[in-house]
Amino acid sequence: MTEKILDGQTVVVIGGSLGIGFETARLARAEGASVIITARSPERLQQAGKELGADVAAFDATDFDQLETFFGDLPTPIDHVLVTGPGPYYGLVADMDFDAVRRDLEAHLLLPMHVARHAATRVRPGGSLLFMGGTGGRRTAPGLASIGSLTAAGPALTRNLAVELAPVRVNLIAAGFVDTPLSATILGDQLDARREQLRTTLPIGRVVGPADIANLAIHLMINTAITGATVDIDGGQQLVEG
Length: 242
Known about the structure:
single chain; alpha/beta; seven-stranded parallel sheet
């Protein structure tokens, strides 16, 4: 029998009930890992856990007391943690919702720091913390002040954590548009037009999906030579959109 690449390992996916998190958990299970997924919605999480054959924990990861309790209660050492998150907040400074900006800051910058604090002592040496970021905020335009700042901060945070937490590895996936339920929620009735535009303009000739991100996530988990890296995956979107 062929050995699977994650046999005997445990993968935690924070935000694992839908989209990128769910697909990464599914692939990790297929590669032999034990999987623990978390999400806010108990009903959706239970369904995802049943479908994946994964353990589940329902809580809001930006409630940092609950996050600490979750990691403290894990029964065994783990090998990898993937942290997904909500979509970006866009808004002009003149009418910005600063409560939304604060929630975005918690989800995209403070959450990784708290995960690093509580997970690092639970992850076996050579294991990894893997965070999700984006590429869209790298350009400048009205409405991108918040997400642009967070996008710029992600790689710096990743590099510093990789040094501080070694030999646990820390990496960041910077994704462009990914065809997920979250994208559908953000774009609404503009989703099909966006898909078609990307199909006709991206160098790869198709839209990036959750499976593409999941394959990259699993590679970053198993490749023990990679740490402190920000890896772009956008199908060439930055090449054609600037």
